[in-house]
Amino acid sequence: MEYIIINQCLNLKQKIYTKYFNQIYKKTKHILNLTKRYSLSVIFVDDQQIKVINHDYRHLDKATDVISFAALDNAQSFELDQAEIELGDIFISIEAIERQAEEYQHSVEREASFLFTHGLLHLFGYDHQNKEDEAVMFKLQDTILDDIISK
């Protein structure tokens, strides 16, 4: 996997947040039985930036913790050099990482890893629009994360 990290915040803690991302990606590919190579971007933003994105694209006037924009559309993909598939972009609020880690009483690394996993599953086509889909996606999140980073 190739991924680009873009930090649009003054907070430079991204290294502690991202040290688990490769493990998460590999385990996700294994669990989903995926064999191709993928690329994606992870963009760290603040609450104000993600609120603007949420408003512009989802018409919701509030900050959220993570937003994914999948490049895959109806099982069609954009292929790079015939060997790599572009998945899309994951925007993560650094302020949400810190706030939610405290709220859920786990580490910022766990929360960043959870939000990355959640966004990654969205890029692979998973969603939580109804109870059945939510149960599948949330079980996958736990299966992926629990062996990599504790709660």
Structure description:
With 151 residues, the chain is an alpha/beta fold. It has one domain (2-145): 3-Layer(aba) Sandwich (Collagenase (Catalytic Domain)), CATH 3.40.390. It is built from six helices and five strands. Strands 1, 2, 3, 4 and 5 form a five-stranded mixed sheet that branches.
Itemize the secondary structure elements and their pairings.
Elements (H helix, E strand, L loop, with lengths): L1 E6 L6 H5 L2 H11 L5 E9 L1 H12 L7 E5 L7 E3 L3 E10 H11 L3 H16 L7 H15 L6
Parallel strand pairs: 1-2, 2-5
Antiparallel strand pairs: 3-5, 4-5
Helix pairs in contact: 2-5, 4-5, 5-6
Tell me what portion of residues adopts beta-strand conformation. 15-25%
Biggest sheet descriptor: 5 strands, mixed
Gross CATH architecture: 3-Layer(aba) Sandwich
- The CATH class is identified as Alpha Beta
Helix content: 40-55%
CATH topology: Collagenase (Catalytic Domain)
Structural class: alpha/beta
What integer value in Å does the Rg equal?
Answer: 15 Å
How many angstroms does the end-to-end distance come to?
Answer: 25 Å
Task: List the secondary-structure elements in sequence, H or E.
Answer: EHHEHEEEHHH
Describe this protein with a few key phrases.
151 residues, Collagenase (Catalytic Domain), alpha/beta, five-stranded mixed beta sheet
